[in-house]
From TrEMBL:
Listed name of the protein: SNX11 protein
GO molecular function ontology, one term from the record: phosphatidylinositol phosphate binding
Alphabetically ordered keywords of this record: Cytoplasm, Endosome, Lipid-binding, Membrane, Protein transport, Transport
An example Gene Ontology biological process: intracellular protein transport
Principal subcellular localisation of the protein: cytoplasm
One cellular-component annotation, GO: endosome
Domain of life: Eukaryota
Organism: Pheucticus melanocephalus (Black-headed grosbeak)
InterPro entries per UniProt: PX_dom, PX_dom_sf, SNX10/11
Record-stated family: Belongs to the sorting nexin family.
Database matches in PROSITE patterns: PX (PS50195)
Subcellular localization: Cytoplasm; Endomembrane system; Endosome
Domain PX: 9-103
PANTHER family: PX DOMAIN-CONTAINING PROTEIN, SORTING NEXIN-11
Length: 103
């Protein structure tokens, strides 16, 4: 940090997983992505959107295309055959998506 200048901070949180279309063949879980920053590069200092796993997959592909030699973080696995409760799987995935965005 430079004296006299506030350090730029960006916080991102993956929260509030919700099952959409529950009980149907096309149900999925989406997550609330909350961003807060004091960076001058952002017009809005807070933003909030809901995104599902496949949109994280799309984002990772875009990052890989443009990253050159910089390694892109992994996403949590996509498993239809998770052993344990659905809630446990959703929470583990939420934590993995949080880690992905932080990196």
């Amino acid at each position: 940090p430079v004296p006299g200048f506030p350090q730029e901070l960006t916080t991102v949180r993956v929260q509030d997983p919700r099952v959409q279309n529950e009980g149907s063949w096309n149900s999925y879980v989406d997550y609330k992505i909350f961003l807060h920053t004091n960076s001058k590069a952002f017009t809005a200092k807070t933003s909030c959107v809901r995104r599902r796993y496949r949109e994280f997959v799309w984002l990772r592909r875009q990052l890989q295309r443009n990253a050159g030699l910089v390694p892109v973080p992994e996403l949590p696995g996509k498993s239809a055959f998770f052993v344990g409760s659905t809630d446990e799987f959703i929470e583990r995935r939420r934590q993995g998506l949080q880690h992905f965005l932080e990196r």
